[in-house]
Amino acid sequence: MRELTYVARHTVEWREAPDPKLRSDQEAIVAPVATTSCDVDSAILAGHGFLDPPFALGHECVARVVETGDAVTTVAPGDLVVVPWSVNCGSCEHCRAGLTAHCTAVPHMAMYGAPIGGNWGGLFSDLVRVPWADAMLVTLPGDLDPVAMASASDNWSLSWRLVAPHLKQRPGARVLVVARGSIGLYVCDIARALGASEVLYVDPDPAHRELARGFGAATAEALEPVRHGFDIAVEATGRVEQLTLAAKSLAPEGICESAGNHFRPGELPLLDMYLTGVTLRIARDNVRGHIPDALELARSGKVDPRRVVSHVFDWEQLPDALPEKHLKPVFVREGA
Which member of 79, 149, 273, 316 has the lowest number of beta carbons within 10 Å of its beta carbon? Predict the structure, then answer.
């Protein structure tokens, strides 16, 4: 089989690898059919990551099940499934507590798309081994479009987690979104659908701002901190100064969620945060537990994740199209 490999800044190529085989009766082999780049993949391709190439890329996809072990009960060959970005067993103490990104059955942060916690390959591959199929795979409902939901492995479900639980606790909250990519736009759509009284989206990209306005958000190219302006702030830029903007714009006891990948150090306004009483979470998401709820919201018709998909490419275009600058490209393989 082939796996798409990051080899240098702005450069990827197909490389041959052995076809994956089942290693236990709990495993599955899947073939990605609609795969997309995460916001962090763009940073990696631009040379801003902390891992040296080469390594297989990709950790967001809908796939078709090709083969299953005898003990697998929740999926069968032919099913379309969401493949979570992190590898998890589903039965260790952390997994049972919902901390699937910290599964103790594998090295810390075991994941697809980067050689962290071992080498599990990437989801821009012809075939992928899933070590705990029942724990990991989520069947895609038949009324959902695989292209629209290619990001359910990470960005879509993460975006649900960034705002949905908070809006349940704070109905009508004011939401600030400081972003540069798909996560922020998904958050705008979800926040408005779930009853936010105000959503402000801050992004220098005019095309992104136009999309956000389509989701009912007010927009700004840039912003000075808005004292006590928002109850919930989401930062998804990877820039500490933008995280500072988000934190300094919160109302007393406000919540700041950072989904940015902060590869570079920086200083936060800790005294301001202390005086305001800010709750800050910076976290790689335990996404597996959120996927069913995020899919259910997509089925409701209240949101439209398909609108964030900027381009649909053929699978064979991956080496040429992935390094280009696109908001949310989806690569589709027919008949897989």
Answer: 316
